[in-house]
Amino acid sequence: MSDLKGRHFLSMLDFSSDEIAKVLKTAAKVKKDPKKYRDELEGKTLAMIFQKPSLRTRVSFETGMTQLGGHAIYLAPTDISLGKRETTEDISLVLSRYVDIIMARVFGHDIVVDLAKHAGVPVINGLSDYEHPCQILADFQTIIERKYKLEGLNFCYIGDGNNVAHSLMFGAARVGMNAVILTPSGYEPDANVLKESSEIAATNGATITVSNDIEASANADVLYTDVWASMGQESEADSRKSVFEKYRIDADTMKRAKPDAIILHCLPAHYGDEIDYETSRLPNSAIFDQAENRMHAQKALMVELLK
Ligand code: CP
Ligand code: NVA
């Protein structure tokens, strides 16, 4: 029996460093030999609740479940109207009578916490306003493929101190990767995330720092960016452009960077804003491996939570 069987995955902090390593090891095996896993979740059903749009999360979970011999049900924002048509508690209790596992993409993080509190089956956070842990499993798988390790690497995130940044900070802390988060003043990550991730990182010989100085990206082995305005912040997109102008991955960033620094972006990308198209297509860019790895990492996650 897996140590992870029956657990929820709402935050990168839900798993220890050994548990993260275990999922990543399974992810590498699933990617290398998908046929070996084709009946692994036979007869199992995944419910996928979405309050927000998605390409990667929806398709990678649904395809992944099919490839494991199971079945996925897509519940669009208007299908169940989370929190409006009935309570999150009732939705969780009812879904747990039908399906084996739930993935939810939500606005407030409290919604996935509430789903998990009442669920009789594992709940996976498919992105909340606070965290995006599934993304980080795929990111770590991609970094290992290019750099053969995580511990001791220098990681630099450039952009908004958002959900992806939070999960990267927690994940980096767990695996002992040094992380620098570069944001404009006023857009830093949550202070509690910085405090907690710094404390955990220190026990693993790593540091997590936040800076407004773009020169701090120079020593990075991994450069990462995400959209300047996340889902739900669309009305701020225009006003953020001038504030974030310097906080992008472009030719200037690459001039300052180590020659072998890899480029990551969780996608969707807004070319010309947080990354330019030419830089995103450099040989150092692993953004499409990263997107592909969403599926392998999540297949591994579901296998570990259900077997
Ligand atoms: N990276 C990511 O989660 O993509 P989607 O929003 O398309 O699912
Ligand atoms: N920070 C982005 C990530 C999208 C995958 C958002 O929440 O919209």
Describe this structure in words.
It is a single chain. The chain is of the alpha/beta class and 307 residues long. It has 2 domains: 12-132 and 294-306, Aspartate/ornithine carbamoyltransferase (Rossmann fold, 3-Layer(aba) Sandwich), CATH 3.40.50; 135-290, Aspartate/ornithine carbamoyltransferase (Rossmann fold, 3-Layer(aba) Sandwich). It is globular. The chain contains 12 helices and 9 strands. The termini are close together. Residues 54-57, 127, 135, 266-268 line the site of phosphoric acid mono(formamide)ester.
Task: Please describe the biggest sheet, giving its number of strands, its sense, and whether it closes into a barrel.
Answer: 5 strands, parallel
- Beta strand count: 9
Beta-strand residue percentage: 5-15%
Task: Kindly report how far apart the N and C termini lie.
Answer: 7 Å
Rg of Cα set: 19 Å
Biggest sheet, strands in spatial order? 7-6-5-8-9
Count of discrete structural domains: 2
Q: Residue ranges: pLDDT <50 for 5 or more in a row?
A: none
Total helical elements: 12
Q: Give the mean pLDDT.
A: 97
Q: What is the CATH level 1 assignment of the largest domain?
A: Alpha Beta
User: So, CATH architecture of the largest domain?
Assistant: 3-Layer(aba) Sandwich
Cofactors, ions, other ligands: phosphoric acid mono(formamide)ester, norvaline
Envelope shape: globular
- CATH level 4 superfamily of the largest domain: Aspartate/ornithine carbamoyltransferase
How much helicity do the residues have? 40-55%
How are helices and strands ordered from N to C?
A: HEHEHHEHEHEHEHEEHHEHH
